[in-house]
Structures are given as structure tokens and as C-alpha cells.
Hints:
This protein is mainly β. The chain has a single domain, classed as Immunoglobulins (Immunoglobulin-like, Sandwich). The protein has one helix spanning about 1-15; strands spanning about 35-45, 50-60, 65-75, 80-90, 95-100, 115-120, 125-130. A seven-stranded antiparallel sheet has the order 1-2-5-4-3-6-7, with no helix packed on it. A hairpin with a 4-residue loop joins β4 (about 80-90) and β5. The chain is elongated.
Amino acid sequence: MIRSAAxxxxxxxxxxxxxxxxEPHPAPNVAPAIVYADAGCYPDDYYHDFVWYFDADVEDYDxxxxxxxxxxxxxxxxxxxxxxxxxxxxxxxxxxxxxxVGNTTxxxxxxxxxxxxxxxxxxxxxTNVVSVYPATW
Length: 137
């Protein structure tokens, strides 16, 4: 009986469990943050029309290259209907911007009831949305 107990103790010490981690777990993705957004229109003498602008500053904890797209959707705040959508393009640093001549859009610069939803998307599909009222004439 003593011999079998000693054998059991010896065998238990040889069957230890080891866990190896090849790499640390990746940090979870963080959605981009729209820290500034502005939209509006102004008269332009060169085009003899209004120009619409869309401007957003987007920061991302995972780095600026993690942001893959920023766009602006314009809705009629009175009816809730979607009116038009615009891609923004990266400028310097965290700024995304685009401008559109009025006759290339479905927007009316004299209409006061628009709301603009800015959406930022990262490479993993995480999003952030901010709504602003555009400056109109």
C-alpha cells in the first residue's frame, strides 16, 4: 500500500498542466469619435450659386489610419426624409471635408429645416454618428 501511494504521488508530480500564450490578446477596437462637425452653405460669385460644405474632425484611439470613411447624410428635419448624401475626404490631420456646388445637390440653401448626420467608420466597421443643423440663408 505504501508503495502504491508513493507511485501515485510520483505520477501526479509528472502530469502537471502548462499553458503557453504565443501572443498577447489584441486590444479591443475603439470606434472613431467625431469631435467637431459643421455644415452649411454660402453664396459663391464664381459659380453664381450656393456652395454646400461639410466639415468634420474625427479622432480614433486606434490611430488616424483606422478611420476608413466619413460621410454626411442630409435629412429633412420636418418630414424625416433623407434628402442627399455626401462623402467627405481626408484633409490635413484629423479633418475630413467636402464642398459641393448647389446645383449638383438636391439641397436648397434657403430651406431652414435640414439636419446633417455625420458618420465616421473605421476599418472594422465601428461607427460614430453626430447630428448638426447646417447654416443656411
